[in-house]
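User: Can you predict the 3D structure of aspartate--tRNA ligase? Sequence below.
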Amino acid sequence: GNEWTDVRELVEAMAGTEVLIRGRVHTYRHVSSKKGFLIVRQKGCLVQCVVTESKENHVSVNMVKFVKQLNSESFVDVIGYVVLPKDPVTGTTQQVEIQVRKVYCVNSALQQLPLYVEDAARSEADIQAGKPGANQDTRLNFRVIDLRTATNQGIFSIQGWTQIGFIEIHSPKLLAGSSEGGSAVFRLDYKGQPACLAQSPQLHKQMAICADFERVFEVGAVYRAEDSFTHRHLCEFIGLDVEMAIHKHYSEIMDLVGELFPFIFNKINENCQKELEAIRKQYPFQPLKFLPKTLRLTFAEGIQMLKEAGVEADPLGDLNTETERKLGLLVLEKYNTEFYILHRYPSAVRPFYTMPCADDPNYSNSFDVFIRGEEIISGAQRVHDPELLTEQAKRFGIDVETIKMYIDSFRYGAPPHGGFGVGLERVVMLFCGLNNIRKTSLFPRDPLRLAP
Ligand code: ATP
Ligand code: AMO
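Assistant: Sure. Here are the predicted structure tokens for aspartate--tRNA ligase:
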């Protein structure tokens, strides 16, 4: 029943209380087989955790040994009491310590890392004075580790700081390979090297999580070489992407979606009455029906509702556009909402990076979000185990060499995480009940249109 406390919130006033924190193994100072100091890092904050053999705290010698052999940069959950140290602690950002009761390894980093945070953080003066450092190429090759330094955390927090604890990122749009595994990419020549336009910020937003940014978002262009004409596909659209570390369950991501969108819809309804009226005059539509607490249904429940209405759909396949619309109508009838989340999709119809359900790998920790029966969002928990990720990529026919650096990111310690992608033009189109995505794109790009 414990909830996680942020390391930066550990202050003197909390002395005596039991806390649970999640962070990386920064360093370990060995004292004896019965005692050691584990420094845990969360973003730029460091706290000293004292591990002492103790009957009272149920800490055995084996437990001390277990903590000692943890690889640095691994993720750990630490349970312990906040204590005021006798002498002031040096080399940490927090002035209190944690007397450890339990340590769990959430995700282990490789024992030997290609780059260490302290080497990446070395000042130029120190390097000139002969201390070990890392050159620029090494730092850029292993950027997900390099970005964990306090300096880089600072640079990118300044660049993208927001009040809600999400950092805005800008990921590259020129990539060496596809990011969604699909075939619909625009290929181009990158100074003699084959390249393509990003189909999504997927791989880089996940790498930003591996680089300790914890919660990131991006608003940017997404390129898909769609080969057919529909009312809701563009070749270039604006993607709103979110990625975040999670503690226990992909419902943490759905909680965010489920609260964020009703908030946005309410704000639009309050602040844009004149605009909505102007739109409605030319293209009449009914205001969107949505609930204050967003409805969630599992994919299996959706299939069941369709079945009861006489529509057969494959429980391990995808829904086609027509079936999605039909389900939208059934949901409206039964729950009086045109905005809802459908989750626990069959694994076979989700991208390779999607986390399978722990209780049944035929299903996945994933979701889509619908407005008026049409998809506006896809999201999921991601696989953060590099072996499983490689296996799933291969199964989807992806050349794993082209995403090697992405897969390797999960070898340097990665937290459980997930996120989602929103199509901006689709949200506006469907909120306003418009029938074509070209109406909500400033200068639409579709398979036949490259101008104006
Ligand atoms: P996304 O591509 O982001 O997942 P989507 O709405 O295209 O969004 P899909 O799962 O790819 O979702 O497709 C859902 C259905 O939409 C498909 O089963 C198909 O009926 C239809 N569809 C998807 N892409 C196209 C396309 N390019 N042309 C025509 N129909 C399409
Ligand atoms: P997906 O491919 O479902 O997921 O895309 C996310 C959302 O983007 C919108 N969208 C489009 N809009 C206009 N034209 C298109 N051709 C088009 N394709 C997609 C939709 C869709 O819901 N990386 C994942 C997201 C994630 O899991 O974080 C992804 O790209 O609104």
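The mean pLDDT is 95. The longest helix spans residues 251-271.
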